[in-house]
Amino acid sequence: MSDRLRSALRWESGLALLVLIIGVVGVTVSAQFLTSNNLFNVGLSYGEIAIMTLPMTLIIISGEIDLSVASILGMCSALLGVLWAKHWPMLGIFALIAVVGLAAGAVNGLLVTRLGLPSLAVTIGTLALYRGIATILLGPNTVANFPATYTNLGVNAVPFTGNAMTYSVALFIVLAVIFGVVLHATPFGRSLYAMGASAEAARFAGIRVKRNKTILFMVSGLVCALAGVLWTFRLDTAVQNNGVGLELDVVAIVLLAGVSIFGGKGSIIGVVLAVLAFAGLQSALLLTNFNQEAAGIVTGALLLLSVFGRNAAALSGRFRKWMPARPGREPGHPAADPSPIPPTASTPP
Amino acid sequence: MSTTLVSRSERPPAAAGPSARRLTERAFRIRESGIIVVLAVFVAVTASVQPRFLNITNIQFILINTTVFALLALGETMVVISRNYDLSVGSVLGLSAYLSANLFGQHHGIPIVAVFLAGLGIGLACGLLNGIMVSAGRVPSLVVTLATLYIFRGVDILIVGGKEVVASSLPSAFLDIPKATVFGIPDLAIAIAVVIGIGAYYLRSFRSGRELYAIGSNPDAARLAGIPTGRRVFMAFMVSGAIAGVAGVLWAAQYGTVDSTAGTGYELQVISAVVVGGVAIFGGSGSAVGAALGALLLNTISSALYVLGISPFWDQAIWGFLLIVAISVDRFISVRLTAALRVRGARHE
After folding, report:
1. Which residues in chain B touch residue A132, judged by CB atoms under 8 angstroms apart?
2. pLDDT digits (tens, 9 = 90+) for B283-329
3. Which chain B positions have a beta carbon within 8 Å of A111's beta carbon?
4. Is the ipTM, as predicted for this complex, more than 0.90?
5. Which residue in A127, A248, A291 is closest to B149 by CB distance?
6. A318 vs B334: CB contact, 8 Å cut-off?
7. How far apart (Å, rounded) are the C-alpha atoms in residues A193 and A191?
8. B154, A294: Cβ pair inside 8 Å?
9. Residue B2 domain flag
């Protein structure tokens, strides 16, 4: 346990160093890097992605994955546009969108936990399904002209922050604290690590694995709905392809944060640092006239670096976590269990 | 067999003998004929509403549109059967499509075969990178290929910039490749069917092909049984890369215009086709023919919607829904099959 804690801390301090290096490099390549104007723009560009990484972290720690996040964002954005065009009152729209987000997450969660389907496949399916619903709702249309009270989200900064902090970033900070406390300091949060390490063992220990995972997917749906609203207002547009492809960015950040793809490991501090590294790097590249669309090269390289960096641990049990259908040996933690022979093999006849 | 004191529940179902194998094979055949039935129902319903659906031009159109996907699905099938994922196929396709089509403009009179070889080479190089990192680096393929999805696309964007290859720069013999027909059937579709047939035969009847299934069913057991798992998985990635490279050249021939967005998002469509076609997302079962049928089914649905005058915006929602139905059916079959095999195993004692 203390070993794992130590290795986690080492990872996070590595990330902090990376953020620092990116900051220094950013300041040296461009005087604009640390200006409030640039910070504001970076916050605008990556606020929604940052918000969506939080529930994704919890889901991956619990041993599942949710690839439908960007589609839920898109679906809620489309719904917002359609209903606004029909002159619904804004509060009613918000309420409905929250319900839709929760429902979308519940569909994912129930398919995964009650039907025992692999979350990877389920959420690829709902990725298409929810995006499909967004396109059915809006078709080729674009809805704009949302009330200025709301679209100012994309123009104004939070007061007393020197015009540097967007509302989406403020929301991210608040949510990060909430998610951090829930993950690290409540029985529910700790149960996610247990589920991620071994769903079977967690169940025998009395953890309500299915219920907790369903809750996670529902929370993810709700948070993505919120991100959808922010996205729509900041761009003042609802189109069917809002946020398309963001799921890969979200997953990349969470993995960069040191969250194990096999579940059971990771921290919110790591995710916050990874968000900073990701956004800082993209911004630095933008300021150096690097082709912004090709910035994916750097994201990809960071991702590879992060997995090769932590390669040694947790590799023995490839993807067992997403396989409720096949009970078997749970992936061992090499540090704790150096023997390659599964314990069941030595049971006397 | 029944003289040893093995309790019924511990006994592996596969040990029940040839009748169990027959039952298993029948179950998979039922699964594959299921796709054919769905396909037939779709075609019949669509054709009864709109007979134009069955005219030769439309069938040719569907077949040609399916070729690239069916080809990609073949490579993806090999990877998925071994319990890995190749998310980079869309990016490899894009890179190969631009670089190979661009050769026509740079070297006038270059033989078409040389261009296909160039595409193959680009694909092999990408597959090599993926394969080395997954099998030698022992890093989860989902993460590696998520990273290379970004990296290959980023390299593509850096090379292409704002340029594009236009149809007028391509020789007409090249653009005619998808148009040639024999007895009304596109040459290309026949060629691809042959390639898929070879792939299916290889997976079914060759030792190294069978070993991919063993690896996918249980990587640890496969390693302990002496299967060179690293080399087999490496080979699967090489094949998938090579196929994506060739598919890129075909893509260029089919569309004529290639910019840096070619093939974006194909990875999820290909994985959907593979899973709808009955390849288990956690490896160990499925066939290349099933995956090709899955690709055909998804393309037929798109075309049917178009012919029926239903907005193409329904396309994505339907395919997402179909994917979820497919994995639910798979789960149902596997649960029933396991139960049936256990009963048989008990009877044989």
Report:
1. 313-321
2. 888 889 999 999 999 888 888 888 887 777 788 888 888 888 888 88
3. 324, 328
4. no
5. A248
6. no
7. 5
8. yes
9. no
Distance (Å, whole) CA B214 – CA B212 = 5
Residue A282 confidence (pLDDT) above 90 = no
| Contacts (Cβ under 8 Å, ≥6 apart) of B191 | none
User: Could you give the CA distance from residue A39 to residue B299 in angstroms, rounded to a whole number?
Assistant: 45
What ranges do the domains of chain A cover? Answer: 11-309
Is residue B74 in a domain? yes
| Euclidean distance between CA atoms B1 and B331, whole angstroms | 30
Domain hosting B328: range is 28-337
DSSP B63-99: HHHHHHHHHHHHHHHHHHHTT---TTHHHHHHHHHHH
Domain at A11-309, CATH class: mainly alpha
Beta-ladder partners of B165: B258
What CATH number does the domain containing B200 carry?
1.10.3470
Q: Percent of chain B, pLDDT > 70?
A: 92
Does pLDDT of A248 surpass 50? yes
Burial B129-165 (b: 16+ CB within 10 A, else e): bbbebbbeeebbbbbbbbbbbbbbbbbbbeebeeebb
Whether A312 has a pLDDT exceeding 80, the answer reads no
Give how far Cα B121 sits from Cα of A72, A155, B241, B244, B264, Å.
39, 49, 9, 10, 20
pTM: 0.83
How many domains does one find in chain B? 1
Instruction: List pLDDT tens digits, range A102-128.
Output: 999 999 999 999 998 889 889 989 998
**Which A residues 107-136 touch B at CB under 8 Å?**
111, 115-118, 120-122, 124-133, 135-136
Residue A314: per-residue pLDDT: 47
